[in-house]
Amino acid sequence: MTNARLWRGLAPYVFVAPALIFIAVFLYMPILFSVGLSFSDWNFISPDANFVGLENYRIVLTDTNFHAAARNTAVYTLILAPLQIIVPLLLARLLAGVARSKLGGFYKGALFVPTIIAFSIAGATWLWLYNPINGFLNAVLEGLGLSGIRWLEDPRFAIWSVSAVVFWKTFGLNMLLCLAALTSIPRDVVEAAKLDGAGALRMLWSIEIPLISPTLFFVTVTTVLGVMDDIVGAVDVMTGGGPIDATTNLLFYLYEKGLRFFQFGHASAVAVIVAAVVGVITWLQFRFLEQRVHYD
To answer: How far is the C-alpha of 42 from the C-alpha of 120, rounded, in Å?
Structure first.
């Protein structure tokens, strides 16, 4: 009986042990290693890592390139986060009306295709579109009697051009999530609202958005957190962070420090700073947005 009672007590931990070991080895240990590395000077080649205290943080926080990356990250978030939430919701609302028709499947597929294309292919395609000499976009402008634009070479347009590519590449998933939530709304609720005279806008604002608020909350949190990561692929393929750091962001700056210049202490310091910022942003979203979510 004692052994049976002991097994019943240990059984749950035995079953979850593989997952816990996996998480510990591949998630928490790298995090702890990165935090420790942020206080040292190591280039990945030398067998020794010298302890330097907060020197890496001082260097990073006083680096003008880091300032440019942080500023651009904020701009990218302000540009992309609203677009990646509002536009997919509106598209999903339009698709909900034809979701069960033959055209519905075609529209969903056509709008979702960019999401599954690799950033290398998407970036190469848009590089041709943005080509200042014989690109499609400048050909259209010249056909309208306007002068061409150096989309990726002019700092005034570069960040907007990269943002357009990232939006085109990533909005499809949020659209499908919103569409799934909208089509799961009970039909009797929709019919009752229509009988009460609710128009399309009133229906969306007063009925549909409250009912799909858990999905919108999930989309908002993941979109705000994912902007930094989404930008890296486009920047790496299209601009390399230029011109004059006009398109870099914090994760691309981290990538350059660690994997291009082998300054792993600096890169780890950036990683810790980014993790702290992401943690604060996530806490703020849960603190102020979750109370507006209706789970009933």
So the answer is: 31
- Give 247's pLDDT tier (boundaries 50, 70, 90): very high
Instruction: Give the bridge partners for 50, in sequence order.
Output: 41
Q: 109, exposed or middle or buried, with CB in 10 Å at 0-12, 13-18, 19+?
A: exposed
Q: Is the dihedral of CA 78, 80, 85, 88 positive or negative?
A: positive
Asked if residue 1 has pLDDT above 60, the reply is: no
Is the pLDDT at 296 greater than 70? The verdict is no
Contacts of 50 (CB under 8 A, 6+ apart): 40, 41, 42
pLDDT at 261: 86
Q: Report d(CA 252, CA 277) in Å as an integer.
A: 16
Of the candidates 71, 112, 115, 121, the residue with the CA atom closest to the CA atom of residue 230? 115
Beta carbons of 165 and 122 less than 8 angstroms apart = yes
**Assigned token pair, 36:** 């420790």
Q: Cβ distance 72 to 252 under 8 Å? A: no
How does the average pLDDT of the chain come out, rounded? 88
| CB-count burial class (<10 Å; 0-12, 13-18, 19+) for 106 | exposed
CA distance 156 to 103: 39
Give the separation between CA 13 and CA 23, rounded to whole angstroms.
Answer: 14
The Cβ of residue 166 has, within 10 Å, a number of other Cβ atoms equal to 24
Give the integer Cα–Cα distance in Å for 162 and 76.
9
